[in-house]
Amino acid sequence: MTTNSGFKYELDSDGIAVVTMDMPGQSVNTMNDAYCDYMDESLAQIKADLGQLKGIVIASAKKTFFAGGDINKIMQDKKEQAWERAFELNMRLKRQLNELESIGVPVVAAINGAAMGGGFEICLACHYRIAIDDRNVAVGLPEVSLGLLPAAGGVVRSVRLLGIQNAFPLLIEGKRFSAPEAQKAGLIHELATDAADMMQRAKAWIVANPTAQQPWFDKKYKIPGGEAYTPSNAMMLAGAPAMLHQKTRSLLPAPAAILSVMAESSRVGYQAAMMIESRYFSELLRSPESTSLISTMYFQMNEIAAGASRPQHIDKKKVAKVGVLGAGMMGRGIAYSSALSGMDVVLKDISIENAEKGKDYSRKLLDKQLARGKKTQDQVDQILARIQPSERNEDLSDCDLIIEAVFEDLTLKHKLTKEIEPFLKPACIWGSNTSTLPITLLADAFSDPSRFIGVHFFSPVDKMPLVEVICGEKTGESALAFIYDYVQQIRKSPIVVNDGRGFYTSRVFGCFCDEGLHLLSEGVNPAMIENIAKGAGMPVGPLSVLDEVEIELMRKVGVTNLELDKQQGEDFHAVHSQLQDMSVRMCELGRSGRVSGKGFYDYFEDGSKSLWAGLADMFGGNTEMPVDDIRDRIMFRQVVETLGCIDRGVLMSSRDANIGSLFGWGFPTHTGGAYHFIEWFGGDDAFETRAAELTAKYGSRFALPAPLSEIKAKLN
Prior knowledge:
Layout: E1 2-3, E2 7-11, E3 16-21, E4 30-31, H1 33-48, E5 55-60, E6 68-69, H2 71-80, H3 83-101, E7 107-111, E8 115-116, H4 118-124, E9 128-132, E10 138-140, H5 154-162, H6 168-171, E11 176-178, H7 179-185, E12 190-192, H8 195-208, H9 231-248, H10 253-265, H11 270-285, H12 288-305, E13 321-325, H13 329-340, E14 344-348, H14 352-371, H15 377-385, E15 387-390, E16 401-404, H16 410-420, E17 429-432, H17 439-442, E18 452-457, E19 466-471, H18 477-489, E20 493-498, H19 505-521, H20 526-535, H21 542-549, H22 551-568, H23 577-588, E21 601-603, E22 609-611, H24 614-619, H25 627-647, H26 654-664, H27 677-681, H28 684-698, H29 708-712
Parallel strand pairs: 3-5, 4-6, 5-7, 7-9, 8-10, 9-12, 13-14, 13-16, 14-15, 16-17, 17-18, 19-20
Antiparallel strand pairs: 1-2, 2-3, 10-11, 18-19, 21-22
Helix pairs in contact: 1-3, 3-11, 9-10, 10-11, 12-26, 13-14, 19-21, 19-23, 19-25, 20-25, 22-23
């Protein structure tokens, strides 16, 4: 017998019903009102057939098993402040899954693809979980990354299944588990080779376990490791808030809320635990942080993944071979990332010895993965075989792409471009890895500037997920599309900006450091500057980060910028005047940064550090200034400069502004990014009012380049 709705219901001759989720008009299954209607229909059919039913298999007709909650629906509820409607939907979801798990016959989840968020909550409501052993299959509860928590029973069931401590990676970290990892963690029970094998195993388990039920429905069942007041858990829970504060500075409420649900739900009955979970979810749903994270980390990240800033009329291409010029810190990381993604790489330097040292970097990274069981020896050998160290220009002749990654010196880059180009095939794209030098100026040394583009990687390349793609005045759409595809091929996120001094990320990051130095020069205590910046959500304070990136490097960049100012008739030096002048001053004092052991901090052999006592002699450090002013100066300086990038046409979309700020220099995640900060702060009026106050008190660098309405009108 077969019935159809959004879910297909089939009852076979053995009395096993297969409910296949296939929501019409959607590429994936999601939890929304339509899902609830389909689930109610399926549950009604199941109850009607209970007399002849031996068990149920929950399956999916989509490539993924189930994508999770309907984010559009969630954002609609947030926008309309339909809190009661959202709560009612949540309770309806809970009721359905509670009904499914207590239906009276065995229920098996047949996981054919990714089961994330609400999708895995469906699986947890089943008595048994089987997944195909395939790289496209993954399970997890990533709601924490969106500022929410799993609210269809995910927290309650996970704690009862795994115990409080073992549920941490799943719930607090939002970890994504492959099928084998999920089986090892106890999240799924069995692996299958393919869909047919999975269905056969599911039905066999039902036959073999006719009285199956959720383990926590047994009156004798105890949560693994005990409830919250069990000594080992109590000790862990006592320290957990401090650990979370260290990671989030209490700016992201979701991890703390999840921790509370984990602890509180372990000490009450099942239905009371479910209500606790829903109440905390309702609080998180109302939070501005969840709005920020969903807007940026879900919608805008998906837009970038879909190629929103890429010319759509140009077909996608795969890079087969890339030439990397320079085997130093950046070049070796680019070579590794490219080879890891299946490309052949020519890693060229002035000597074969330097090139081999660059390849050794990949070897060391891969050896670590081998030791951790993340790679096999065969995989390591294959990746290393793709990297060809070289000192010969001729070895670049069949490359699809060249990425030049030598020192930030205009003359050197021009010389290298002219030297290498004659050896390249006609269609080869040239990408320059630069953080500050104008792409249009660099392209003067290349015969076809339409094939010349900026590719700004971040250090360390193997860890940083962002690449800033910079279009010069004559960069063609084909080159942009090609580089966009390359960046995605190496599994990084591309943002696209137009040419301009400092581009976007370097220019605004420099303003963060520059404002910290303005505060220092005005006599604000350096410890206050550092701590207030971190309290606002920056990863580290401006003085600390300058030591890390090297004050000497900042001095050299400043020299280059002054030379370019003279050539171009510009005054870019003024944008970062304190940063560049202070870098010269510190280097003259022999304090060039962490590598030298002294900068704004003193560094000690045991790995500790402390602020340099000499800062008090230089700047005093006794100036009293409202904490709100210090915090807002640090944050508004970055946002105002971001708006300037939009106004000048460097930035063309809010998604590139937000994602670039979050992943480029660590702008506070809870705000949603440097552009979304305006909404997080309270909206246009509140932001413009505060910017005007800061301008009146501290100077024109806080003045908006134009009214916000005019700036926003320039975005795509």
